[in-house]
Design a protein that fits this description.
The chain is of the alpha/beta class. It is built from 17 helices and ten strands. Strand 1, helix 1 and strand 2 form a beta-alpha-beta unit.
């Protein structure tokens, strides 16, 4: 066997079933399927045994954690349990192409003589067109050739070479707070000249989650800069380029305020020193890589003034126009450790 399709999941049995219904007809003797149940309230193996029927259920292996170890650790566990040369970690609710497995196997065959860390495939998360494959095998090339970080963050777009990835697996656990721990071992491998191929082939679509399941914009802004702490020995210029590529994921300070206020049910009087600390961290971690720094400084100062004066902010919330801007529903409310 060449490829393991690993599906980490928690409390989403119906989504796992739908994904497997699309996936199972694509399997051949080169591919196996592993479902990692992160101690869901419904035992996923029992659910799938009934919903899929014995013939299809026997095509998969389900492993259940005895406790919820967190989404990032469950992802990393796929590499520890994998017995094939390559693994595709697939989100439990992502929509795969009807020929996704065949495309992956074809690409792996194409690059079988290369010193790979893996292949990042195209998806609707990539806002830059890929007309042909892009090869990256150094920190400098990563800084200059990576087209769109958001596509790499999307878990289901990447297939990794297990033997190389696990050499750096500790960085996935180390970076679990980052919301992007899955790319950290790959980044370390690239810094040691293993090749990441950015494929122009399209294998998966990111289906927009409900607001309840989406990540907080503010948390993403707070945690993604952790990536820059990896010991990759950037030049100063390359460090700044990586930071600029990350910065497209950063939410503005007014929108971060909106995320926070919605968490507090628009009661600004509940703001405390913890929230002030978060905004200071947001500024410190992201400001260096933001554009229009004067505008960003002014916005940050204005937001900090308001959250330090919650009574004034509460009065502003009585203004219909201001309240509508805060409660638009576009910016997801702040929540720590959303990725479970």
């Amino acid at each position: 066997m060449i490829l393991t399709v690993a599906i980490p999941t928690y409390n989403r049995p119906a989504q796992v079933k739908s994904t497997l219904v699309r996936l199972l007809p694509q399997l051949n003797d080169s591919v196996k399927v592993l479902v990692l149940d992160n101690c869901s309230e419904v035992v996923i193996a029992d659910y799938l045994a009934v919903e899929l029927g014995p013939e299809d259920f026997n095509k998969i292996t389900v492993i259940r954690n005895i406790v919820n170890i967190g989404g990032d650790a469950n992802f990393a566990k796929a590499f520890e349990l994998c017995t094939t040369p390559y693994v595709w970690v697939l989100g439990d609710d992502d929509e795969i192409a009807t020929d996704a497995v065949a495309l992956i196997l074809s690409e792996l065959n194409k690059y079988q003589s290369e010193d790979l860390i893996g292949i990042n495939f195209l998806s609707n998360c990539c806002e830059v067109p890929r007309e042909q494959p892009i090869e990256i095998s150094s920190t400098k090339e990563l800084a200059n050739r990576l087209d769109w970080f958001g596509n790499w963050f999307f878990i289901s777009t990447s297939v990794y070479k297990v033997s190389e990835y696990i050499k750096h697996l500790r960085f996935a656990y180390w970076g679990a707070y980052s919301m992007a721990s899955q790319i950290m071992p790959a980044m370390m491998a690239i810094s040691q000249h293993k090749k990441l191929v950015l494929s122009e082939k399209y294998i998966v679509t990111n289906v927009k989650a409900s607001e309840e399941d989406q990540w907080s914009h503010m948390q993403v802004s707070l945690t993604l800069p952790t990536i820059l702490e990896l010991p990759m020995q950037y030049s100063e210029d390359d460090f700044m380029k990586i930071g600029q590529k990350l910065s497209v994921q950063f939410v503005s300070f007014p929108h971060a305020l909106s995320s926070l206020l919605r968490t507090l049910n628009l009661n600004a009087l509940l703001i405390d020193k913890f929230h002030i600390y978060l905004f200071r961290e947001l500024y410190a971690k992201t400001f260096l890589f933001r554009k229009h720094k004067l505008k960003q400084n002014i916005q940050y100062a204005a937001v900090m003034f308001l959250i330090k004066n919650p009574s004034l902010l509460q009065l502003l919330l009585k203004n219909k126009t201001f309240r509508q801007r805060v409660d638009r529903g576009v910016y997801i409310k702040f929540s720590l450790f959303k990725r479970g």
